[in-house]
Amino acid sequence: MGAGHAHRLYRxxxxxxxxxxxxxxxxxxxxxxxxxxxxxxxxxWAFGLYALLLACVxxxxxxxxxxxxxxxxxxxxxVAFAVLMPFVAQxxxxxxxxxxxxxxxxxxxxxxxxxxxxxxxASVLLASTTELRELLLGLQRLRLPPLLVQxxxxxxxxxxxxxxxxxxxxxxxxxxxxxARGVRSWxxxxxxxxALFIRSYERGERVHLAMVSRGYTGSMPVIDEVxxxxxxxxxxxxxxxxxxxxxxxxWTL
Length: 253
What we know:
The protein is 68% helix and 3% strand. The protein has helices spanning 22-38, 44-61, 65-71, 76-88, 103-129, 132-141, 146-175, 186-213, 230-236, 238-252, and strands at residues 93-96, 99-102. The chain starts with 21 loop residues before the first helix and ends with a helix. The chain crosses the membrane at residues 43-60, 72-89, 109-130, 233-251.
């Protein structure tokens, strides 16, 4: 994990949020999501305050609102599921604009939309202020099982390699006059997928043999030791602590 690896969600910057150690941000986002999920769905005002807290984080990180909103589109399938809930759920019904909707379904849809959107927004802010390499180092620092960290590291490193291999195979097919049209082209695409799998498997074997020949024994060496001061932990946990206060008020008011 010594080399950097940029990703599309990351937004380069020098804000205080960017400068926090990755494991503090991971822990803070995880705690924030737990607090949001624990909030009663009836406390609608609390979710507005959570959104305001995330907006403050985005402002401190100098991440534009458009950047975050564009990447929230990933939750569209969950939005579609939530929209269907008032129509299919059982229980007490209420008429809204001439439609008979379930009260439990409406609350369930609101619960999914509010908590899901806040969780995705927090994850987007984490990804936009933390490089992938730093995220892996943060997971390692938080004592995630080393094998899982290594698997994630190799997935990130060789995802682009496989994507580039797919691009070259596509160019090779098109240079021979192939166009994917209809069911008849599925056979060629299936053969290409099989060839890609074999090439990826062989590449993985070669990489593993190269690592073993260089002394790999099942664990990767720690090149960068990431540490965090008490002040950095306090700064990172300002978000979940403020959210916890809102959550407690939501349960008591």
